[in-house]
Design goal:
By secondary structure, the protein is mainly α. The chain has helices spanning 2-13, 17-20, 25-28, 51-73, 81-92; strands at 38-39, 45-47.
Length: 124
């Protein structure tokens, strides 16, 4: 309807410059106008108070989303990303350190010894 079109145009037209130039605007579009009540770093009003969280989230998921899109374009299942990330994680694992508690592997599946798993305190 015309009312919805006016709302959509106003939503875009009221975005501060900080939002219009943002690399993740394509995903959040400035968020809901009711949440735009803080100032930008430059002091311009109209920034969504959830902006920092939106930015962190959308920047964090950028790489996996691009990988999944590429898989789809190749006619492959986006779920294949789980295997790709598992392989990548395996390449990043440090060599396990032997353990004075018997050397049992950590139940988390990291491959580290129980005594040294996750950098936590040593178990006696």
């Amino acid at each position: 309807s015309e009312r919805q079109r006016r709302f959509g145009r106003a939503k875009l037209d009221t975005l501060p410059r900080y939002c219009r130039e943002c690399s993740v605007r394509f995903a959040c579009h400035g968020g809901c106008p009711k949440d735009r009540f803080v100032e930008t770093p430059d002091g311009e009003p109209g920034l969504n108070y959830l902006c920092a969280g939106y930015k962190a989230f959308f920047q964090h998921i950028d790489r996996p989303m691009r990988i999944m899109a590429g898989l789809l374009l190749q006619g492959r299942a986006p779920a294949e990303i789980m295997g790709l990330y598992a392989e990548e994680d395996q390449r990043k694992l440090p060599v396990a350190i032997s353990c004075s508690v018997g050397g049992d592997p950590c139940p988390s599946g990291t491959g580290r010894k129980l005594e040294h798993g996750h950098g936590g305190p040593r178990r006696a």
